[in-house]
Design brief:
- By secondary structure, this protein is mostly helical.
- A hairpin with a 3-residue loop joins strand 1 and strand 2.
- The protein is globular and about 70 Å long.
- The model has no long low-confidence stretch (mean pLDDT 88).
- The relative contact order is 0.14.
- The protein is 61% helix and 4% strand.
- A three-stranded antiparallel β-sheet has the order 1-2-3.
- It starts with a helix and ends with a helix.
């Protein structure tokens, strides 16, 4: 009985109350959520579907078909894990970005979910290259050569060490998040990586992964 009375009181209180729904301004989005967010109007990330399960294939190959010496087996295994994860997280990020853009831009949590997925995708893509570098002994890029891989490395480090960057005040202008999404690609305070460049690197790692499981 008491619960029924409380419910009735709550319903009476709600009667006649007008819910005020505010649409965030461009200033609010760019200042308190992320740089350039008010300019984000389309999802041009492009999902990257994969054609095979590289990790499963490699486990079966290494168990029943080929003998891989250590640590080569571990390096290949973890390269493939990172590649699979980068594709998976990239696609999740693209889906989350779709949900944000198709909404009314008040679902900011969807935008942040997309950012997190893309941060993981980029970091795992970079780590896959580093496992490849360890496997081959070939240096893949030089620091500050401004190649796609160099800028991927910079985005990876910015995301990884952002807590220290903010705490130490090492840069003049700090965004709410270390990496954000634009219509053309991924951006930090001083670095940019286009979707086309990311796709080219993912295509390259897809080719390498397919070769490793043959």
């Amino acid at each position: 009985m008491a619960n029924q009375k409380l419910c009735a009181i709550a319903e009476n209180l709600k009667t006649g109350v007008r819910v005020l729904e505010l649409q965030p301004s461009n200033y609010f989005l760019d200042k308190f959520v992320s740089f350039d967010l008010s300019s984000l109007s389309s999802n041009n990330t492009g999902k990257r579907e994969i054609s095979s399960k590289w990790v499963n294939a490699f486990i079966l190959n290494s168990a029943f078909r080929y003998k891989f010496e250590e640590p080569k087996r571990l390096l290949i295994m973890n390269l493939l894990r990172r590649v699979e994860s980068s594709f998976h997280q990239y696609n999740l990020g693209s889906s989350q970005l779709d949900e944000y853009l198709l909404g009314d831009k008040r679902g900011i949590s969807r935008y942040f979910s997309a950012v997190v997925c893309f941060e993981i995708a980029l970091s795992h893509l970079y780590q896959a290259y580093m496992f490849g570098q360890r496997l081959t002994g070939i240096k893949l890029f030089n620091s500050n050569d401004n190649s796609s891989l160099d800028r991927l490395n910079k985005l990876y480090n910015i995301s990884k060490h952002y807590d220290g960057t903010v705490s130490k005040g090492e840069i003049d202008e700090v965004n709410t998040i270390p990496i954000w999404i634009t219509n053309e690609g991924f951006k930090s305070i001083d670095k940019f990586l286009s979707y086309n460049e990311v796709h080219e690197m993912m295509n390259e790692m897809e080719y390498i992964s397919n070769e490793l499981i043959k």
